[in-house]
Amino acid sequence: MEFFIRHKSIVVFVLFFLFCIISLSVHTSPLTLSLEGMGRAFITPFQKGYNGAQQNVRKLWAGFTELGDVRDQLRLTREKLQHYEAVAEEVSEIKKENDRLRKLLDMQKRVTNDSIAAIIISKDPDNWFRTIVVNRGSSDGVRINMPVIAYVGEEKAVAGKVVEVRGSVSVIEPIISTGMKLGVMLQESRFPGLLSGYAANSNFAIIDYINKSAAIKLGDVVVTSGQGGIFPQGMLVGKVIKSFVSESSPYQRAIVAPIVNYNQIEEVFIIKKEPDKELMEVMGKVEP
To answer: What pTM, to 2 d.p., does this model score?
Structure first.
């Protein structure tokens, strides 16, 4: 015992040396190698699974990134498509407007009387006052009581007359207005009458004061008589859809469907014809 105490450092060195040799022999033994292999065999699947999951997460993240890029590209494409659709619609409207103006110019050439082409910019929405506003006024030569016509296909028909004029716009009273008074006649039999609007909210007109001896047929064409000093004679007005007579009255009446469809017309022609002022004064339609 005393020997170990005296030579403590030598003893410690020897013991450490022996421990190293034993440890080395243990680590290189088949049993240790077998245990290490088993550990690796146990850990390897988990390690592979972890590595695979990590790769899948990376791929998934890359997919999300690509999906975001695709979504942005889709949004930009949709915005461009909407822009192109708006441009195409605008071009289509411009083309339609050009076609309308070209058609209006062609129509004006066919009007034998000196006329002013006008585009309708407003209509009475409830059809009560029966007025139409156009984009031509006193600065264009429009005057009150000038006759107004419109084209329906190839037919030229009476639309109304000018009742109010301002600098750049005018108000037109159509023939279906109850305040309208228009001298007309049956084209075939030449019997005259006085046409006005049938009712405040109707699309028809009515002829009063037709002689009882007139043979009125459905479909009879009605034209202007030239009486009244505003409209020239022979202008197309409409067609008879019904006639009736009262035993107590010496006259017949006839309901007329105008040629002009006031719900569809977009342009009219104002005929530059000054009314006969002397005749208008006699009839009490203008101030002397």
So the answer is: 0.60
